[in-house]
Amino acid sequence: MTERIAVLKKFFVEEKQHLAFRSHIDYSHCHLAALGEMKNHRAVATLLTMVLQEEKPRVFPFERIPFLRSVENIPMHALEPLFEGHRRHEQGVLNNICVDYTYLLDRGFDCAERELTEQIEQYRMCGNVERADYLQSACMVLRAILDLCDRYREEAKAVGNREVYEILGIVPRNAPTSFAQALVFFRILHFAMWASGSNHNTVGRFDLFMKPYFEKDLATGVLTEESALEWIEEFFLTFNRDTDLYFGVQRGDNGQSLVLGGVDSEGKQVFSQLSELCLTASAELGVIDPKINLRVDRNTPDRVYELGTVLTKKGLGFPQYSNDDVIIPEMLRWGYAL
């Protein structure tokens, strides 16, 4: 662990100094009442817009991956009329969902919004007003997040954090071209998911969708193994900033699970240098989030189990092991596509 990572861990995890920047918001009652009269998708998009507009950007000089919850309360009660007559498994608008982060990572927000706008026009031309209205809510979400990112960029400039300022000049409007940009992009998406009132927002197969950025930067000399590890450790620490606001059955039960290893659709092993660095980062930090899930099978090298055991000895309760030899055939039996 580098000195800079130790400073970040002390500030955010051990001393929790960032909590001093939190505030409780009194939302407009008339605006909240209006949510119950909207279609579900428009109500959720409007709620997220309201919450993000209240967020006060805070960028610290010593960080490279920003975004911090300054608003401690999300008025979820305003959405209760939308759930009348329905059963919910857990709290939240959505929960236990693993989204396809690559959809936006590969495009950037500007490209995604252009695609949505074209689809909206096509639906309107053929008279499918309902579908067009739904996609308009998706555009609302993109714009609300971009507005917050622009304000974060201005704050980064004001405090002299040049690195954050430059990264936010590229993402999320554009697709990331580096590992660092991809990490910040993901942070923005994950931050927005929590701010929307969704619950148990998972990370997914991190070592797969981040691998192209990681390997490109290693090959071109932008990263070394040491500098990549530092970026991963800072990224992992961001999951621990606002966990007191993320509800679950018990403390730490928030669904921030990251999957490593396993096989691809052709059955090839995907555990990589990036996978190993993630295990190393988690063991060095000794923090509860993100939780590590390790996919294994009969061909998994002993080295992977050894790395997993080092992490187990930290007493964090993970990695949890998922046996591809058992689970993949069962999922196929239940009708999932390979």
Topology:
Layout: H1 3-14, H2 29-35, H3 40-54, H4 80-83, E1 95-97, H5 102-105, H6 109-125, H7 129-159, H8 162-167, H9 179-195, E2 199-201, H10 206-209, H11 211-219, H12 225-238, E3 257-261, H13 273-285, E4 291-296, H14 302-312, E5 320-323, H15 324-333
Parallel strand pairs: 1-2, 3-4, 4-5
Helix pairs in contact: 1-12, 3-7, 6-7, 9-12, 12-13, 13-14
Number of strands: 5
How much of the sequence lies in strands comes to 5-15%
Tally of DSSP helical segments:
15
| Topology pattern, helix = H, strand = E | HHHHEHHHHHEHHHEHEHEH
Task: Walk me through what this model shows.
The chain is mainly alpha-helical. It has one domain: Anaerobic Ribonucleotide-triphosphate Reductase Large Chain, CATH 3.20.70.20. The protein has 15 helices and five strands. It has helices spanning 3-14, 29-35, 40-54, 80-83, 102-105, 109-125, 129-159, 162-167, 179-195, 206-209, 211-219, 225-238, 273-285, 302-312, 324-333, and strands spanning 95-97, 199-201, 257-261, 291-296, 320-323. Strands 3-4-5 form a three-stranded parallel beta sheet. Strands 1-2 form a two-stranded parallel sheet. The radius of gyration is 21 Å and the shape is globular. The model has no long low-confidence stretch (mean pLDDT 95).
